[in-house]
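[job 0412] stage=complex_fold ligand=C2E status=START
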Amino acid sequence: VNPALAALLFTAAVHALQRRLSAPRGLARELLGAMRRGELSLAYQPQVDRDGRITGAEALLRWNHPTRGAVSPAEFIPVAEDLGLMPVLGAWVLDQACGTLARWKADPALTRLTLSVNVSASQFNESDFTTTVRQLVESHAIDSTRLRLELTENVLLAGLEPVAEKMEALKRTGVTFSLDDFGTGYSSLAYLRRLPVTELKIDRSFVAGASDSDRGQALVRSIVSIASDLDLNVVAEGVETAAQHAFLRDTGCHLFQGWLFGRPVPRDDFELILRERQPAEMPVPQRLQAR
Ligand code: C2E
Ligand code: MG
Ligand code: MG
Ligand code: MG
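[job 0412] stage=complex_fold status=DONE, emitting structure tokens
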């Protein structure tokens, strides 16, 4: 082997390795500061029922980076996981979400909304997760039944029994559970009987797949049928077209979420949309009813 070439290849390999390492490391370092600098926020995406009424929202984490612009959670959440930052980041998200529910509680037009919050497996499996949720519900004085925690099948890596017990304890605080990205994990369906979930979210990939083929449609039908046997609500996520919506509605899905109904937006915008679209939600003030 030509020693000069070998040296060249070695240097190139080292550089490639450095590039691969430095990108996530840079992001990691900045993520630590992002929380302090207030670059993180929640976006709210509406969920609508079969009559087209907005019943709630999913809170989605956003990072507005000063130079990179919007960084996708698909990019930075894995970094946060690697750094062990997810419990802290997740607690921040929950605190924000509870703050929003407290705000909505005081507003007749918004008081009936539910808010779904994504909880990562590492966050859920922290030993003090239940305490964190209980304390946040109490300190914000919210109606805990409005708070829905979205879990994925990944949490089950910690074992079915401990996870089921933790969910039962959390359920006693009033919160409800949704299984996110349902059907994309590797677990068996048997766990569904043991976990106190009230809702399944059909993953976007199944919703998209239903447009392509009969097999795709059959898959969605079987998910809805499992859910209905177990008395669970079904949410379809990633609904982009009227044709998808029509199929999902005919199949029996209860709630719909996707660009067809609204993109994730800042809280103020979400509240504005709600007031414009659903002013009828406003009940007659009590002092008027009395007369
Ligand atoms: P997810 O929980 O399954 O959220 C749904 C994703 O689909 C969101 O992506 C949403 O913006 C996107 N989406 C909604 N409707 C449509 C549609 O009609 N078409 C398409 N193409 N996409 C749609 P986003 O906001 O980029 O979040 C990606 C993932 O990052 C989430 O998937 C969730 O797993 C994770 N994530 C986001 N926020 C949080 C958070 O606060 N905590 C944790 N642990 N994870 C989060
Ligand atoms: Mg989700
Ligand atoms: Mg999802
Ligand atoms: Mg998904």
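Residues 58, 118, 150, 180 surround magnesium ion (ligand 2) (CB under 6 Å).
[job 0412] exit 0
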